[in-house]
Structures are given as C-alpha cells and as structure tokens.
Amino acid sequence: RIAYVNGRFVPHGEAVVHIEDRGYQLADAVYEVWAVFGGKLADAEGHFARLERSLSELSIDMPMSRKALTIVLKEALRRNRVREGMVYLQVSRGVAPREHAFPLNPIAPSVVITVSMVDRTVSEAKAAKGVGVVTTPENRWGRCDIKTVGLLPNALAKQKAREAGAAEAWFVDELGFVTEGASSNAWIVDREGRLRTRDTNANILRGITRRTLMDVIAEEGLSVDERPFTPDDAHHAQEAFITGAGSLVLPVVSLDGKPIGGGKPGQVAMKLRRLYIERAK
Ligand code: PDD
C-alpha cells in the first residue's frame, strides 16, 4: 500500500507525521472521505466544498486547489490499484511546538491521503442483511458541522455499538431526538411512509451522501420531512437507514436490540441504495 504525505508518495508502513503535528496533539485537523466507484470519486465536488468550509472555519488555508487535490487523490488510487473503495484525506494546521493558540508564524498544513479497497460483494451482502444500531447520549461539542478529526466521542460510541453486536450508534440529544450516527446520518421511513431525517441547522454534519440522496428522492417523486425523530419513532417506523461515504445507504434492521420493520431491510432503503450507487458510478 502507498500513502501520500506532504507532497510524497511513500510505502504505507513508512508514512509518518511529526510528533508535534497539531492534528496529533490537539485534533487541530479536518478530514474528508470519498467513496470510489470504478476509480471515480463519488460526490467529488460536494466533499471539496465541505472541506473548504471546514478549513475556513479553522482559518486553515486550502493546501492546494481542488484541481490539484483531485490529481493527487486519483494518483493515490492509481498507485494502490484501487477502483472500488474509499479515499481518506486529512489536513492539519501543521507542525509547531505545543501551544493551544495558533502558531504566531505561518506554518504549512500537513496533508495525508490513504486509500482502501472495498469488496462490493461483501458490502452488498451486508446491506441485504441490514445492520443494528444502538443509541447513546449526545456528548459531542457544539460544532459537529466541522468535519474535524476530534472523534473521541464518535469512537467511543462506535465501540459501544460493536460491543452490542451493532454496526452504528445514534446520538440522542437532551430532548430525546436522534441527532446523527457516529459516522453517518440517520433516517427513517415513518409510520405514514414519509422519509424523515434531521435538518442540518442542528448540530450535525451536513452529510454529502444525505444531500445527494435528497436529489435522488426528489427525482423519484418522494419527499423528505426534515424533522428530528426519537428512538421510539424509529421503533415504530416502517424502515430505517443510514447514509455516509462509508455506508452509502445502509438499511437498519434493529435499534437497541429491538427489530425495526420486522427486522428486514426496507424496500425504500434498498431502492435508494441502488439509485444512489447508480448515480455515483
Ligand atoms: N463519516 N455524520 C458524521 C458524524 C460522519 O462522520 C459522517 C461521515 C456523516 C456522513 O457524511 P457523508 O455523507 O458526507 O460521508 C455524518 C465518514 C465517512 C467517516 O468518518 O469515515
């Protein structure tokens, strides 16, 4: 495997950043993940737009243009011979002696790219079975719209899910509503058959997969109610699913161990998965 670090392609095992990288010490870094179909970046522009926004919220300059980044991301895929998979990009503020406030003198951001292969047969089999989700109290900071690598609450939530034999955790806010997943957005098809997902004015990540799926849904003549739902709503829902660059559109068949939609993937979710993948290809 080959990784990209600050202008160089290096063997994955030898790819390193400095111990005083602010991403490492302070989570002063942002990231993006693209799904890759047939060597093509899914929702390429949407992820670039969000990257630019995350960076600007932290006053970090784009390390290079979208065009140059695209070339490097594609080169990383080519060198790893990955046509079906994912590509990860991380940009930190850079390396400086540890101090909380930004360095006084400008520093160069650290740019890291890694690539991973996805076996589509395996992921389709997983989707056809559906996955379980557990709930966990929302305990993240107030800027979940910035895609930072400060993911400790997400990592702990995901571990809780794994220990319960589930694939994802849904954060639940103090009002009892689901905000989003540890690495995905949360959706249901409610009792009345309406698609529901939380609005992005709330403290959640503006998912790119979520955004594209909105277009797919509109083209299908369906509509989305951007209203939060509770775990109880989900238990009574016809279907549930999650969206993200990793999960794409993935049916949820249980919540906290109780089945949703008879414990089988829903028709709407499976159809939206197929349509999303067709569009991304
Ligand atoms: N996660 N919400 C959170 C907290 C996420 O981390 C993600 C993505 C999403 C979905 O966003 P998108 O559709 O743009 O991928 C929602 C990535 C895949 C990750 O952390 O690996």
Automatic annotation (TrEMBL):
Alphabetized Pfam families for the sequence: Aminotran_4
Organism, as annotated: Phenylobacterium soli
SUPFAM superfamilies named among the record's database cross-references: D-aminoacid aminotransferase-like PLP-dependent enzymes
UniProt cross-references to NCBIfam families, sorted A to Z: PRK06680.1 (NF005209)
GO molecular function: L-isoleucine-2-oxoglutarate transaminase activity; L-leucine-2-oxoglutarate transaminase activity; L-valine-2-oxoglutarate transaminase activity
Claim: Metal-binding is one of the keywords in the record: no
Pathway assigned in UniProt: Amino-acid biosynthesis; L-isoleucine biosynthesis; L-isoleucine from 2-oxobutanoate: step 4/4; Amino-acid biosynthesis; L-leucine biosynthesis; L-leucine from 3-methyl-2-oxobutanoate: step 4/4; Amino-acid biosynthesis; L-valine biosynthesis; L-valine from pyruvate: step 4/4
Swiss-Prot/TrEMBL cofactor(s): pyridoxal 5'-phosphate
Protein's name in the database: Probable branched-chain-amino-acid aminotransferase
Gene3D superfamilies: 3.30.470.10, D-amino Acid Aminotransferase, subunit A, domain 2 (3.20.10.10)
Record field: catalytic activity: L-isoleucine + 2-oxoglutarate = (S)-3-methyl-2-oxopentanoate + L-glutamate; L-valine + 2-oxoglutarate = 3-methyl-2-oxobutanoate + L-glutamate; L-leucine + 2-oxoglutarate = 4-methyl-2-oxopentanoate + L-glutamate
Gene Ontology BP, a term: amino acid biosynthetic process
Family the entry assigns: Belongs to the class-IV pyridoxal-phosphate-dependent aminotransferase family.
